[in-house]
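User: For a benchmark we're assembling, each entry needs the component sequences followed by a predicted structure for the full assembly. Here are entry 17's components. Please fill in the structure.
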Amino acid sequence: MYDHLKGFRDFYPGEMSARRETIDTVEATAERYGFREIGTPALERTQMYVDKSGEEIVEELYAFQDKGGRDVTLTPELTPTVARMVVAKSQELSKPIKWMSTRPFWRYEQVQQGRFREFYQTNVDIFGSAEPEADAEILAFAADAMTNLGLTADDFEFRVSHRDILGGLLEAFDADVDTRDAIRAVDKSAKIDREEYLALLTDAGLTWSQAEQFDDLLKSEDLDALVDFAGTERVEAAVTNLQNVLAVAEEFGVREYCTLSLETARGLDYYTGVVFECFDSTGEVSRAVFGGGRYDDLIESFGGQPTPAVGVAPGHAPLQLLCQRAGVWPEEALSTDYYLLTVGDTRDVAARIARELRATGNVVETDVADRSFGAQMGYADGINAETVVIVGEQDLANDEVTVKDMATGEQTTAPVDDFPGDRDAPTYDDFAE
Amino acid sequence: MYDHLKGFRDFYPGEMSARRETIDTVEATAERYGFREIGTPALERTQMYVDKSGEEIVEELYAFQDKGGRDVTLTPELTPTVARMVVAKSQELSKPIKWMSTRPFWRYEQVQQGRFREFYQTNVDIFGSAEPEADAEILAFAADAMTNLGLTADDFEFRVSHRDILGGLLEAFDADVDTRDAIRAVDKSAKIDREEYLALLTDAGLTWSQAEQFDDLLKSEDLDALVDFAGTERVEAAVTNLQNVLAVAEEFGVREYCTLSLETARGLDYYTGVVFECFDSTGEVSRAVFGGGRYDDLIESFGGQPTPAVGVAPGHAPLQLLCQRAGVWPEEALSTDYYLLTVGDTRDVAARIARELRATGNVVETDVADRSFGAQMGYADGINAETVVIVGEQDLANDEVTVKDMATGEQTTAPVDDFPGDRDAPTYDDFAE
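Assistant: Structure for entry 17:
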């Protein structure tokens, strides 16, 4: 007997139907904002990830050589792929480009609750606008997706920050700071104790007292004080940009979901402006549910024209944890409109009825295993059939079928020639006296 | 600049929307038959494929060692995975099990028209019924999917055969035949000339004259003659089974799409009963579009209880070729219900209208790039917006917005407080005098 690989999951129909409903909700939300679906390959050249993130990234990837000797990688995220696609057709694509897609990604990493080696995300991105409206639209899409899933402002918050505030502040210290390392330290700060955090900041080039001051400044969340401290145009512009994004988010109706949180940094190196992470307001789901932000330099670094970009990628495993915690995860059950139960040689009539009911969009099962009345009824119950239509030889002799409401157990007869007739979805009630 | 790998494809929004429509149609057809969606991993242990198909299969696979030293493979087909999943939960799953899913698969093979290294299929399977109704339901689903795509009986045919007729006939010759090799020869027969075909049959153990006789028997398609020739219960039972499947297909309303074709064999080894391939009736798409059949032994060979099974897997690349040939491939274009065009500082009103229109399911874009009237109108045209709602400072001073029908170019004004009002999808016509 074979088993699935560690960190990979088999989804059986019950769980899958809940996942499908969730994915459909997130995608439908994106579609209504005019994000257009794209399709992308599972494999890319490993070099693309090495160029972007350095040789050490390969350790976390499913990287290998294909039969043609190419170094290839199972895509660990979508952003490099969409950047590549934007560059490849930048002349033809009218801006802003608004794309979305849902698919699995793969990382060879430690398996934890809500974190797998194969994981599904819906990626949503805007290319070609540096305006705060674009950042705010990403926040608005994400907030709408959450509320469309049944979550409320009591369930989640977006902690919003700005990479240029962090970078600009670090620059303002009289120190030779490795900004990348320092920002990675900020990204870790919530998960480690203060001493350890400050030590990481000193590793990145700050003195201990500078590290303390930096930490205090971020914690204060007093944007005016930050501008005064830095005294640079860079920090001033970043603060203005962050305030503008939040102002547009207000107009877009989603400001209430956003919290200013300068200690939010996002781990990935390519972010340049506003960044945000979604958290469970109760803290029960302890890690960030998902995150996103602005990455204005990536397209150019991939050989394209300078193209500002901003995006978000809800991951479906952490989203499931949050929905379950909040009690809004869809029921993991099958649903079936009709089961056509045949007794004796009545298959042709049952087939005709099944065909007509399917044509109006109903989910209809019928016997394909030559089973007894009881076995068929048990199966119909198991698939949660709402209505069972019994097509028996005796009923047919009277030109009738029996219509049974499975919730109440009530049943009645209907004229076979008038079933379903011109009804899209006939039920017991349509024929009961 | 990076490129995608050979045999892998990037799908941009226009083509993707046509693909999505096609996939949705095939999936909706399966859902209405009560096939339930499952989710499956992209990676499996390589050993599973070696056990099933022999060591040589590895040459065609994306097989590699992961960081933990496991021999793993990018799944080249779904059947072994679903067989594994059935075995893992065989006690809990009530039979018949009816599953479906759409996803990519990967094979390292020669890239041709309609054949890629990454290719998408919708797999549809029934486990737990040996009855002809199950085979016929698979044929009926497949035929309905085709007609739901707009294809007709003039466009495609299912060539139906039976593995046990082929195997039973071969057994009836006084020769030591390698059935697997002989059936592979039959599978190739349409693509090679007769001499070469007969030579392959002699390689498999028939004499030249036996090979000629075998070929004549298959070509005759006279099932009674086959039964007489073989004189075995096996061939008699197989012929009866094939006839029963076609009889049920008649009751299921899809017999017209089925042609008896004993020279159809399917390449894969695991088939045991009815097999079929879908062909373009015009022959313009020269290879089989897709195929399916019965594989009653696979679950047991995976360590499960004996479990009969039958399935089909439409591949979306060859299906696209057929739909394009038949002129029923969906238009590769974006569709947009509304573009909200802002002039001046009117974003808050535009955002309110956009939010209300999205809430009733419309696709609504608005400006996220701070662009001019002309640039916005050009963009709205590029995304095929049906209606443009112009929210201008001047109009707002009169408590109005302008509603423009993009097809006719006509425009009128509407009271801003009554737009959209209680209308789900207001158009120019709702406000024109």
